[in-house]
Amino acid sequence: MRPLEPADPRTIGDRYRVLARIGSGGMGTVYFGRSPGGRAVAIKLVHAELAADAEFRERFRREAAAARTVGGGFTAAVLDADPDAAVPWLASEFLAAVPLDEAVRDGGALPPAAARTLAAGIAEALRAIHRAGIVHRDLKPANVLLTADGPRVIDFGIARALDAATITRPGDRAGSPGFMAPEQVAGAPAGPPADVFSFGSTLAYACTGAEPFGEGPWHAKMFRIESGAPRLGRIADEELRALVASCMDRDPARRPSAEELAEHLAAPPSPGWLPSQVTAEIRRRAAEAENPPPPRARRLRRPPPLPAAAAAAITLALGAGGAIIAWPSPGPDAAGAPPSAAPSQTVRTSRPSTRTLEFYVTGDVRLTSMTYTVNGRDTTLRNVRLPWRQVVQIPALPRQTKWRLRYKFPPGEVRWRVLVDGFGAASGMSSARGRPSIGDYDGTH
Question: Does domain 354-444 match CATH 2.60.40?
Answer without folding.
Answer: yes
